[in-house]
Amino acid sequence: MESRVILPSLSEELKESIKIDQENKKYLLEIQISSDTITLTLTNIEEVASYSRQLSLKEIKEIHQVFMGLNSCKEFSEFLKSLLEIKKLLIDKKENGIYIHFEVEYLLKKKIVDIELFPEKINYECVIKGLLQEINLIKEKIKDDNKIELIKNLENENKELKKEIDNLKKENTNLKEEINQIKNVLATINKKYQKKYSVIMEEKELDFIKSAIESRINKQIKKIKKLYQATIDGDDVPIFHKKCDNIPNTLTIIKSKENRRFGGFTTQVWDNSNSFKKDENAFLFSLDKSKIYKIKHNCEGRAIWSGQNYGPVFGSNSGGIFGNSHDICIGRNPLKQKNLHTYEFCPNSVYDYSGDNAALSECGKEQSSIYAEDYEVFQIIF
Asked: Which of 49, 69, 345, 380 is 20 to 30 A removed from 61 (C-alpha atoms)?
């Protein structure tokens, strides 16, 4: 029997800040509690990015058994502060991200617990603070540019003024070099901390998908624009339609709770028409297996199904959408409910898996439902 965690309702919101001094670095851990969720935000004033993660009390309890005794989000906050006081809470920065690292005791045994936080945004205030003195010097030097024109009018009358002119020209050249250096610093920072196209798909996997799209459309991709992410925008169907409807050439990428990653591409638009749509260029894919699944011959008319009560739906046999006989279907709130479906084992599937049963997800070998960890939708611009 599946166990359920009943979340207590909090009478008021809570926002706390915890200062963490570690190895001559100062961090600020902000804990914001609203209803039944906790948002952890970690900032280091010496760096240009902050990191955050939103968790429910249920997710916190799933991280480690030691947290099962917590009955509210506020108790979790108090628990963090107690760990900090005994120096059992550390910030662990790794190449691929940053972690809140706990050393706790459970059943008389020491346990290590890590909560991973993800890059949230560039802290341009930190960048500006670091360059403020240089910018002030630039402003002072720019004022001296007005002297150059005056000196040019007198250079034939006074040799000493000619020397001053030469000096000012050199200073002006140095000024331009300093400005270019600042521009290069900002460009480097932007490149280092820019968000990836996808939190699910790696860069090399993006090249694999781009190649599959370009070979079918016979056009070169100029830009990929993120339209929607369930964990950021919300996983309810109306939000998906608000951000993604009536936009052609979309790529959907899904990650299940079982860490299976898959999705599909279509040139058709999503809308509330409650109808099948034809697309001979549509295809499905598995990132885990690096495989593309083409649409079957004479099935192009059922490439996608677009309806107001569903997110992206790829393929449906003659049984119809309500028979759970689709290749991929995302229903309402798939992050909170088991409303992600795949059924590639169905003999009437629209896409060709060539005997690769459960090609997309673990539930693909039977009509069943699973949770989604996250899903994203991108617009492909040619």
From this structure: 49
Interval 102-109 mean pLDDT? 75
What pTM did the predictor assign? 0.50
Give Cβ neighbours of residue 251 (< 8 Å, ≥ 6 apart). Answer: 209, 213, 224, 263, 264, 265, 377, 378, 379, 380
Instruction: List all residues 6 or more positions away from 65 whose beta carbon is below 8 Å from its beta carbon.
Output: 106
Separation of alpha carbons 276 and 173, rounded Å: 65
Per residue in 38-50, pLDDT tens?
788 888 756 656 7
Same domain assignment for residues 283 and 157: no
> Strand pairing partners for 100?
91, 115
Distance CA 184, CA 181 (A): 5
DSSP 8-class letter at 95? T
**Total number of domains in the chain:** 3
Report the C-alpha gap between 261 and 253 in whole angstroms.
7
| 230 and 267 together in one domain | yes
Task: For residues 6 and 233, give the distance between their C-alpha atoms in angstroms, rounded to a whole number.
Answer: 25
Per the DSSP assignment, residues forming a β-bridge with 29 are 18, 42
- The alpha carbon of 129 is separated from its chain's Cα centroid by a whole number of angstroms, namely 27
* Res. 2: pLDDT tops 50: no
332-351: burial string, b at 16+ Cβ within 10 Å, e else: ebbbeeebbbbbbbbeebbb
Residue 138 lies in a domain: no
